[in-house]
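A.,

Following up on our hallway conversation. Structure tokens first:
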């Protein structure tokens, strides 16, 4: 029974994506029939060629890859450093600061949009890569994930390294980080996927087409080709494929990292 329910849930999840691929291969006139067809009569691959030129996919892909790659590296570094501090180092107000940090995650992102924009505008970074990337480099969820990961690690290896004269930086860089690789991999993949589909902040902070990212470019494409659904679905498939590939390749690391992190969660 459990397998049947999982199969039904999988089909329900995959059905919209599969239908999007099907529509992307249809001719524009096919969708005017009633009832609308589920499968295309032929393979209209010209939709992808036209969508690739009109999006334009190369520039949008590069901008999105720069955003997702830089934010991924930044979040891994800041989350690992802050997570280690909250897990291993003792200082006055540590628990209170961490609780306040977690409370910040409950603030809706839309409320922070205007302060973030005013800050970036004051720095003169509107419509630039620094303005697009800088406010995304710290993740509260990432700090929590890495803290829980470091708490789950045994202290025996660290104690042995301390006896050999290792300082905090050596313990962090050469002992704790290698042991926390599953959580680091999970954080890196999730950060990359999250930024690849980032829409609201890039829409606000960018103005020129030269720096627009995938979801913003897709929204503009939708306005330009509002009546041509095969073109729109072809563009959506091309924007979605990199995320699907990363998800399929890295799903083992994500599942392992999240499972190991939550196994011994302590607060």
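Then the amino acids I'd put at each of the 267 positions:
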């Amino acid at each position: 029974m459990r397998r049947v329910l999982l199969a039904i849930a999988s089909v329900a999840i995959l059905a919209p994506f599969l239908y999007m691929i099907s529509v992307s291969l249809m001719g524009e006139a096919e969708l005017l029939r009633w009832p609308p067809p589920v499968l295309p009569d032929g393979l209209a691959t010209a939709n992808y060629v036209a969508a690739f030129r009109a999006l334009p996919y190369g520039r949008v892909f590069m901008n999105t890859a720069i955003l997702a790659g830089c934010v991924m590296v930044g979040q891994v570094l800041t989350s690992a450093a802050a997570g280690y501090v909250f897990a291993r180092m003792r200082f006055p107000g540590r628990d209170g600061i961490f609780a306040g940090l977690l409370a910040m995650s409950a603030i809706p992102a839309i409320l922070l949009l205007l302060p973030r924009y005013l800050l970036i505008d004051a720095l003169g970074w509107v419509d630039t890569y620094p303005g697009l990337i800088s406010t995304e480099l710290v993740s509260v969820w990432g700090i929590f994930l890495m803290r829980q990961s470091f708490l789950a690690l045994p202290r025996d290896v660290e104690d042995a390294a301390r006896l050999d004269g290792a300082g905090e930086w050596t313990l962090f860089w050469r002992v704790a980080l290698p042991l926390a690789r599953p959580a680091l991999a999970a954080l890196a993949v999730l950060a990359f996927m999250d930024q690849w589909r980032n829409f609201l902040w890039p829409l606000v902070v960018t103005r020129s087409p030269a720096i627009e990212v995938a979801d913003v470019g897709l929204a503009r494409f939708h306005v330009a080709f509002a009546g041509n659904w095969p073109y729109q679905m072809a563009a959506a498939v091309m924007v979605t494929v990199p995320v699907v590939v990363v998800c399929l390749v890295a799903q083992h690391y994500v599942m392992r990292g999240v499972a190991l992190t939550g196994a011994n969660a302590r607060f």
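Residues 263-267 have pLDDT under 50 and may be disordered. Curious whether your intuition agrees with the design.

B.
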